[in-house]
Write a structure and sequence with these properties.
- GO terms for molecular function: serine-type endopeptidase activity.
- Keywords: Hydrolase, Membrane, Protease, Transmembrane, Transmembrane helix.
- This is PDZ domain-containing protein.
- The protein is mostly beta strands.
- It folds into 2 domains: 305 residues, Thrombin, subunit H (Beta Barrel); 86 residues, PDZ domain (Pdz3 Domain, Roll), CATH 2.30.42.
- 10% of the residues lie in helices and 39% in strands.
- It is built from 5 helices and 26 strands.
- Strands 1, 2, 3, 5, 12, 13, 14, 15, 16 and 17 form a 10-stranded mixed sheet that branches. A 6-stranded antiparallel β-barrel has the order 6-7-8-11-10-9.
- β22 and β23 form a beta hairpin.
- The protein is elongated and about 70 Å long.
- The two termini are 36 Å apart.
Amino acid sequence: MTVYPNQGSRPGQPGPYGAPYGPHAPQGGHPPYNHPPQQRPPRHGLGFTVVTVVVLALAVTIGMVAARLTTTGTSARSPLAQSPGIVSQPVDSQTSTADLTAAANKVVSGIVNVDTELGLQNGEGAGTGIVLTSDGEILTNNHVVEGATKITVTALGNSRTYPATVVGYDRSDDLAVVRLTGASGLQTATLGNSDRVAIGDAIVGLGNAGGTGTPTAAAGQVTGLDRSITASDESAGASEQLTGLIQVAANIQPGDSGGPLINSAGQVIGVDTAASQSFRFGNASSQGGGQGFAIPINKALTIAKQIQGGKSSSTVHIGKSAFLGVSVSDATNGGALVRNIVTDGPAEQLGLSPGDVITAVDNTTVDSALSLTDTMDQHHPGDTVTLKFTDRFGQSQSARTQLAQGPVG
């Protein structure tokens, strides 16, 4: 791979990825159903999360960088042969291109493309992952796999494609571990120490930019440490904060989510997660510049090891996701307002209707759409829960239902 110097930042509009989507879909990661998903998908549509970055007094618009590729039942992409080669992207700082090229080539065989089918949304998604173990445990972002009804992963080191399942996820820190079926002998990525990262360090972000299936490299430098961003889902009325992030000046693009941010030695120092919209999105040869954000690898590995060890917590969910079968938004006076119901799901079976407001699950108060999502993360398919809600006529109701198995997250 060759990395070429940049000609400077060119602010521009988001490319052909469509409307914004948010960081937290309503309960279980499922979009509102009172309008067609392809018109305004809140989480896994063709677009970016609208977020605000608070860096001192500066606020910029950024977005999660998992590419959401189609809103129809079939993919618009043709299968591509995989190879460890990389299509170059611009360098966003004056760094040694030879060193960055060598660093990128060290890592590319230790990354994977993550492709998802989003069955409830009639869509598909694409992101990236980092190989943690030779038998196929992969680190990626939660938002790459959230809402997935099917996951396939292509290892760039051997060009093989594997079915995959989610071991567990941490929604609050936007991380997940995926396990490949039948994998062995995979090349793992070399991991660095994110505590040693300093402002001005040269970096490269690697990933499946645009969901093309061909790995790309975005080179630049570290511009900030310990950054916090607040991501909001305008259509669902939910938001989240990610903290402690590495900020970089690099052309991170949709599809790069879950991919490695590496240093000049070819060591992974972060997990690419978000990027500003104030730069040009396009193909690998386009000139662009912007601000990317990555989760430090030390933090990511701590969470990954907890997931690999099967240790659930208030933020870590292990195993399959429980499914209530509603889409919700924040209710005006607290609670989760039911916007629509999934046919034949638990919510429909117990008689919930659009306009009802969920106020508690068992003895846990639900005061927002996000709190319902967090509460559901503490449950698994087959659990029986008592749902308390105020119906659309203002009457308090209570009913028991058994949770089903749903899409990831």
